[in-house]
Amino acid sequence: MVLRKMTLIALTLMLTIGLAACGGGGNGSGSGNNQAGGQSGTDNSQGTNETPGGATITVLNEGAVGVGVGVLNDLLEKKKQALIADEAMNPRVVEEDFSYTPGEPLMAGVFPYFYQSIMLEKMEAQNITVKMEDWGWGEQLIQKQTAGFLAKNIPDIIVGETQMPGFAQQGLLEPFPDDMAQEIRENIAPAAWKPMEYDGKIYGFASQPGVSSLFWNKKLVKEAGLDPEKAPATWDELLENVQKVTEAGKGKYYGGGVYAGPNAGGYLRYGTLLVINGGGFADDQGQPVFNSEANVETVQFLKELNAAHPAGLMANTNEGTYFDAFKKEQIAYLIDGPWRAIESSQIGIDYGMSQIPLSSDGKAGNITIGAAFHSVPKDAKNKEAAFAYIRAMYSDEIQQLIADTGVRSPVLKSIAETDEYQAVHPEMYQHYLAMAGNVQGLPTFAKEDSKIWQMFGDAVTKSLMTNGDIKSILDDAQKKAEAITK
């Protein structure tokens, strides 16, 4: 039973973190079965904005809960039978596994099935038909969504990660109704909506967003003479700890810290340190703020952490290499998303987990990671029905289901803040706490977004890997970026 439970947890992990970090892949197919811009087959002609009843809404698949393409009611039985027939699953899913009692541990692998079953029940109660579409993920998804906006042929609900705040700023999304926005602000953790707030309006919601926490290998920390149960509370303490672990490791293992490669995986992780220290990537107009005093201080801290790594690891362009080092017990400390908890447990690492330490003048903050935001486009034909779907995403039933997986924390305060949840899922409660306060998403720059990001990433890498003056390096990156964005 223990082996079966652990294997099932691993299966849940694979299904639930499909959107993790920087560009996980849709619902697993990655095929983008429909094309945007007049070729998608999206039919928004049914229903009206006056009443959700009788409407058919089109919803883009979210990888973590994707069940296929077509009418949701037809997809669920197919999904169930596919899970039962999948011989690659170990242990095999059987009919008896499709039994779930709220408040009890959820059988892994069937999470998408139960998630969509609850959504279907809630939509059918309002006489709303749901049609799922798959436009892929990452760049493929962004390109199709951009074409769909231009052609005014877009699903009723779109989903995405880093591109979604930019769509809101461009006026392409419908703001949430005032009563719905108020309900969300009062009852939902900020990470689920704060990155999608613009000019006082909310434009998107994620039912199970991720934010980063600090993880550490208790065995390596203990070998360095440190208390393995104590989390460093400040940057100074973290730096002291990683230095002690590196010294104790004598080249066999290192202190570690945070991945800082010149790519989205790096920006999502060390960007949290920028936010904590009062810095960031861009202002609210999409203009770069690379060379702020706070950013210079943070990059200096990153440079000091870099010394507690094997040469070249921290800024490696392949983020997988960095996280493999933690899994192989080659580094002790790591800043990453919530999936690191269950994965560490699965591979036998005795780990600690806490909120990320603060700089001397810093305040708690974070950047969403692996967050699938759902939004209603301005050109959606069934807006009221679409908002009814999003409301269901933060219902008690859906949020309890998420809580019972133990892989991500629920965003509904009435579930996450109970004594029962904190006792059963202490690690994920730490994650919930990290979802409060100043939580942001990665910004979109005013022009040539990808090129500007690369300028910043290259500047940080140069700061870490050379003896150049950090302020001068960031000044140069700022000047080059402004020449493009202004």
TrEMBL record:
Biased composition (Polar residues): 42-51
The entry's keywords: Signal, Transport
GO terms of molecular function: maltose binding
Pfam families: SBP_bac_1 (PF01547)
Family: Belongs to the bacterial solute-binding protein 1 family.
UniProt keyword annotation of DNA damage present: no
InterPro entries membership: SBP (IPR006059)
Coiled coil: none
Single GO cellular component term: ATP-binding cassette (ABC) transporter complex, substrate-binding subunit-containing
Signal peptide positions on this chain: 1-20
Organism name: Paenibacillus apis
Domain of life: Bacteria
Presence of keyword Membrane: no
Region (Disordered) location: 31-54
Protein's name in the database: ABC transporter substrate-binding protein
Lineage start: Bacteria, Bacillati, Bacillota, Bacilli, Bacillales
Gene3D superfamilies per UniProt: Periplasmic binding protein-like II
